[in-house]
Amino acid sequence: MPGEFEIIERIRRQVGPPGPGVLQGIGDDAAVLEAPGATLLASSDALVEGIHFHLSYMSPRQVGRKAMAVNLSDVGSMGGRPLFALVTLGLRRGLPEGFLDELYAGLLEMGRTHGTQVVGGDTVTSPERFFIDVAILGVPGEGPPVLRSGARVGDRVAVTAPLGASGAGLAWLLAEREERLPAGARGAAQEAVLACVRAHLEPTPRVQAGQALAACGAVHAMMDISDGLASEVNHVARESGVGIRVRGGDVPVAPEASEMGRLLDADPFPWALSGGEDYELLFTYNPAAEDRVQAALAGAGLRLHVLGEVTRREEGVTLEREGQLHPLPPAGYVHLQD
Ligand SMILES: Nc1ncnc2c1ncn2[C@@H]1O[C@H](COP(=O)(O)OP(=O)(O)O)[C@@H](O)[C@H]1O
Ligand SMILES: Cc1ncc(C[n+]2csc(CCOP(=O)(O)OP(=O)(O)O)c2C)c(N)n1
Ligand SMILES: [Mg+2]
User: Binding of Mg(2+) 5: at which residues (predicted)?
Assistant: First the structure.
């Protein structure tokens, strides 16, 4: 079976070039559509039991929150305002009592935080595993939608916060589930464990930051980090027709992920580089206007974390470590890959 990206590429070719009203079709965080009287942003993402979460460690409320959050994140990463959501449920036998009420409490509470209403959906049987898909509709914020394809040579590449806590949280949850936590890890450093687990189970979509970055006028390309930094920089490079150099020493690793590395006797860097599900924003911007970028982030309570620059396409996507340049393949989570 080909991996998810090859499948999407084939679908993209079969669908063909964007038709009337489609400003951006397949290939970005959200589609950008010109409807009579309005520009719309549209996107959907599903969470599947056993692939994205296990109900043994994730509450139905958290599943609801995350299903909404990852979709809000896709609209936020275009600088848009998410307005309406359609929710499709694939329900199986044996779901716990109160499951739906809790799931919807999570969906609605996350939606409300960002002014997004649930307006419809679909409910079907799923024979073995529960799944939830959210489709979201929004509009651009004050700035025009920021695509993956706008990066320019000379741009700086940055993220909205240190990375790796979600990957570290998942590593902990899976080790606990599979009863392979190292002896002595359990009682120790509870704060770091809680912070990583929370980052994984309750991600915060950067909707306000995305809108502010799009509005500041200096950001050329933007996307959210779902599959992992390494994967996403490759997406931006490809869609923009540029190279990207990531400086390994400048990839911000969340302190709680570093602490988790000590507990699990693991290197935290791979969590930051390719663990995924951070839902921070990756963006490129004009260095001459860095003060505007900083001001936009400060308004959203965040800081600028610069980790590389946009280069000519011929230089490819690279990781600089200890003075040496290495190719940086799109390692990260890929559905359907064996
Ligand atoms: N089955 C599909 N049919 C059409 N377009 C798809 C399909 N699956 C994914 N896409 C599109 O491919 C692009 C990449 O998808 P994905 O990697 O899931 O992006 P994201 O990380 O933003 O969710 C998006 O534009 C998405 O809408
Ligand atoms: C049980 C379990 N195993 C592995 C993962 C890791 N994981 C699953 S999907 C994914 C990537 C993000 O999900 P995807 O559906 O690819 O989101 P999209 O890129 O479409 O937004 C990651 C890192 C997880 N969250 N849970
Ligand atoms: Mg997706």
Answer: 227
